[in-house]
From TrEMBL:
Highest taxon, organism lineage: Bacteria
Domain Peptidase M48 residue range list: 71-290
InterPro entries assigned to the protein according to its UniProt record, in alphabetical order: HtpX_protease, Pept_M48_protease_HtpX, Peptidase_M48
Pfam families assigned: Peptidase_M48
Name recorded for this polypeptide: Protease HtpX homolog
Residues where Zn(2+) binds: H138, H142, E213
GO MF annotations, alphabetized: metalloendopeptidase activity; zinc ion binding
BP terms from Gene Ontology: proteolysis
Length: 300
């Protein structure tokens, strides 16, 4: 495992999202001529971040309706995670299974001592033990690289920004441009921010998320010593998810989707810019290069 500067990435990610959030507060303050909204949005961001920090694991597990499992209920999963966590010299996370046949897996939690790894029933059915080991190695490295917390908090802040942008649209339509002393309450500025703010938050989050998938692929494969197992698993997961996608209308699933090892929704015509995950073909190519002795699984 090598350094991925996740601390710097965390600062840049959350800093960028806070700038967007405060810009929305400023725009609403201008539209309504009430500066209290700047303070309100700062407090909302602070409270939302704190709540997500302490409850990131519970929120993600609850969104998938996952249940904890014992070694007797999931012997292979337990055996693999116990072996890999010992090899990494890290505490073993809690294990969960989500009752969906859409194949996927994710890790969550604010640190290795408060982490959880969740597999769906679907992924446990379609993967053999070697492939499952590759997937679990990937998820454990998300935990040990300490990037799960950032992704969870970013998702919560992005949700706040989206809700705030909707408020901004309302304020721009009904609260701005009235009277002669309208100071900075240009409804066009408010509308522009309302549409661009959630987009900016999503792009910031997605860019970091995609980079971290490459990191976890590489470090997870180094932990298991078997990059081709993960490559094979990713192919199966993509095929299974396209046949049995999760419901994109379920906002809780959408908020959790960036944590999963692969895109849980049917790809459709969504542009690569808006995907939270790199393409499976790109990830597989990097893993195959790693297996051929290329060292790093590719440049970033």
């Amino acid at each position: 495992m090598h350094r991925h500067y996740n601390g710097l990435k965390t600062v840049l990610l959350l800093g960028g999202m806070w700038v967007v959030l405060l810009a929305i507060g400023w725009a609403i303050a201008g539209a309504t001529r009430n500066s209290v909204f700047i303070v309100v949005f700062a407090l909302v961001g602070l409270l939302g971040t704190a709540y997500s920090y302490w409850n990131s694991d519970k929120l993600a597990i609850r969104s998938m309706r996952a249940v904890p499992v014992t070694p007797q209920q999931a012997p292979s999963m337990y055996r693999i995670v116990h072996e890999l966590s010992q090899r990494a010299g890290q505490p073993m996370p809690r294990l969960f299974i989500a009752p969906t046949m859409s194949p996927n897996a994710f890790a969550t939690g604010r640190n290795p001592e408060h982490a959880a790894v969740c597999c769906t029933e679907g992924i446990l059915q379609i993967l053999d033990e070697r492939e499952l080991r590759g997937v679990l190695g990937h998820e454990l490295m998300h935990v040990y690289n300490r990037d799960i917390l950032t992704s969870s908090v970013a998702a919560a802040v992005a949700g706040i920004i989206t809700s705030a942008a909707q408020m901004l649209q309302f304020a721009a339509f009904f609260g701005g441009g009235r009277g002669e002393d309208n100071r900075g309450g240009n409804p066009l500025v408010g509308l522009l921010l309302a549409f661009l703010a959630p987009l900016a938050a999503a792009v910031i989050q997605m860019a970091i998320s995609r980079t971290r998938e490459y990191d976890a692929d590489e470090d997870g494969s180094a932990l298991t010593g078997d990059p081709l197992a993960l490559a094979s698993a990713l192919r199966k997961i993509e095929g299974g998810a396209s046949q049995r996608p999760m419901d994109p209308a379920d906002q809780k699933l959408v908020n959790t989707s960036h944590l999963m090892i692969a895109n849980p929704f049917r790809g459709g015509s969504v542009s690569g810019l808006f995907r939270t995950h790199p393409s499976t073909a790109d990830r597989v190519a990097r893993l195959e290069a790693m297996a051929r002795g290329g060292g790093s699984a590719g440049g970033r």
